[in-house]
Fold this sequence. Notes:
Blueprint: H1 5-122, H2 142-154
Amino acid sequence: MTMTALQWGFEVGLALLLAATLWYAIRLERRLGVLRRDNAALEALVAGFNDATTRAEASTARLRAAAEGAGRQISDQVEGAGRLRDDLLFLLERGEQLADRLDTVVREARGMVSDRAPARAAMPQMPNPPAAEPEAPRVRSQAERDLLQALRAAR
């Protein structure tokens, strides 16, 4: 059985088509290999992204808890400062009242001293009493020293 030219033409055409198909199959295999490698890299990237997201969520929760704790601490400090401010205002008012009373007493005492000065001059001088042993200097507190200094400054 001999083949005719038409059959040879079909065989050659078929062989050319098979060669072209083989060439495209090889190219497709290479591209699929690249795609598989890229797919593995993409999966690794997605896994890393999921891990980073999980860590970020955990960090956000810890940060939120720390911020709430700091907020409570600041609130407590503000409350304490408010109470301290109220106490200081009370002490300031009391101090002003005491200063006013002290000022009044000092003014009255100055008036008494100036009223007694002429009467003292008219009184006969009595001899000085015998000298007693000098008193040991008394130790005064800082408050007493401050009060004495304020009284001397007021004269």
